[in-house]
Amino acid sequence: MRPTLDAVTRDAREVGGAWRTHQRHELPPVPADLAPWVERFWAVTWDYAEPYRQLVVPTPNVHLTFRSGRATVTGIATTHQHRTLEGRGSVLGVAFRPGWFRPLLGRAVSTLTDTTVDAADVLHRDVPDVRHADALAGFLRSVLPAPDPRSALAADAVAAVATDPGLTTVRDLAAHLSLSTRHVQRLFAEYVGAGPKWVIRLHRLREVTERLDAGAQVRWAALADELGYADQAHLTRDFRAMFGESPTRYAQRY
How far is it, in rounded angstroms, from Cα 192 to Cα 61? Predict the structure, then answer.
């Protein structure tokens, strides 16, 4: 019988926050003039004597990253991924606010979903080897086009999902925005890169991770009902699909 993921012995470097001894995460401030476009700048450095399999969980953002002299654009990943970190290295990136990469891309953001491409192919220009936040800000100022009002609408829609736990269906979100469900679905495909149902599921499941990170006692059946799930089994299944492991195994990371 094949062992389940939770039965497999795990890397001690990912348990109890031990990864923090090998990695440093920074969030450089975003200049005010870029705030409509950018959710965050981020930088990670690492030092591993042996290769480490890093879990990367989904977010509703398009990322522009600079690593080892290569610039790439990564669309929304609709499920968890893994990256291998080894030796010493670093990466600098920008997470665009949901909806705000669309004017820069010039086409539906859903065309980038679950893909990583060279930034030069997306931006249609040479991309410098950016290594610090000030240079990143300067580069963005040189390439950003005029704002698109629908980008703001898409960002507001995702923000509503993130901040209102009562929004558990696309119909709820459409009513909140005073739009039809079809309009919301088209908006998300064109500007966000994933459907509204997926974004709602992601944020409701992130509420689970926040409670686990805080060490809170979780009454799973009650939480499943609160988040709009038929039962605990459906909640656990969706959590595993999104984050790569069960809630209890995920909690061991912190």
Answer: 8
Encode burial over 68-78: b for 16+ CB neighbours within 10 A, e otherwise.
eeebbbbbbbb
Alpha-carbon span 166 to 173, nearest angstrom? 9
Largest CA distance in the chain: 57
Q: What is the pTM of this model?
A: 0.89
Instruction: Centre a 10 Å sphere on the Cβ of residue 136 and count the other Cβ atoms it contains.
Output: 24
pLDDT in tens, the chain (254 residues): 444 444 445 678 877 777 788 999 999 999 999 999 999 999 999 999 999 988 899 999 999 999 999 999 999 999 999 889 999 999 999 999 999 999 999 999 999 999 999 999 999 999 999 999 999 999 999 999 999 999 999 999 999 999 998 898 999 999 999 999 999 999 999 999 999 999 999 999 998 888 887 777 788 888 888 888 888 999 999 999 999 888 888 877 76
* Domains of the chain (ranges, CATH numbers): 5-251 (1.10.10.60)
Element (DSSP H or E) covering residue 116: strand 116-118
- With H, G, I as helix, E, B as strand and everything else as coil, classify residue 22: coil
Q: How far from chain centre, in Å, is Cα 41?
A: 13
Cα–Cα distance, 40 to 60 (Å, whole number): 13
